[in-house]
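Module 6 notes. Inverse folding takes a fixed backbone as the condition and produces residue identities as the prediction. Think of it as a translation problem where the source language is geometry and the target language is the twenty amino acids. Below is one complete input and output pair. Work through it position by position during the lab.
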């Protein structure tokens, strides 16, 4: 199995466990770190709607909780006709732990649908370096 296949399977498996009773739109996300580990997350909605969290946020939290902090590649899995690309807030969440050229794959039940880089989704971004003081 290639690492991309493993990422796809992890995101697809976790998507099935999403808690999305309000939108009925389940999303899974999986991160491969430079050490080769994979961390997954799903969206978790809430009756108080704004409290719900995205799949990408869950995957980032799982990675950080495991003591890792560099994203080598990421894949987002969702259904429907449109590409399920990360929301604006999640692009910024990913940016904290990724490089401009880090690949971000968008997939559906049919497989990989599109390949992006973080920079293409979040150009001219603000990040940790912006806070560096001389
Ligand atoms: N959602 C994600 O988890 N990730 C995305 O990339 C897009 C949207 C979730 C948030 C909400 O629970 C549902 O999908 C509908 O917006």
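Target side of the pair, the amino acids:
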């Amino acid at each position: 199995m290639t690492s991309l296949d493993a990422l796809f399977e992890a995101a697809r498996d976790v998507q099935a466990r999403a808690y999305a009773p309000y939108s009925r739109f389940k999303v899974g996300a999986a991160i491969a770190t430079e050490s080769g580990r994979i961390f997954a997350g799903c969206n978790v909605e809430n009756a108080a709607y704004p409290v719900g969290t995205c799949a990408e946020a869950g995957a980032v939290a799982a990675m950080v909780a495991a003591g890792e902090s560099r994203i080598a590649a990421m894949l987002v899995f969702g259904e429907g006709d449109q590409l399920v690309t990360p929301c604006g807030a999640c692009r910024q969440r990913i940016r904290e732990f990724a490089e401009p050229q880090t690949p971000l794959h968008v997939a559906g039940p049919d497989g990989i649908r599109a390949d992006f880089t973080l920079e293409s989704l979040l150009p001219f971004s603000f990040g940790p370096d912006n806070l560096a003081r001389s």
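Reference fact for the lab report: The helical segments are 3-15, 55-65, 88-95, 118-121.
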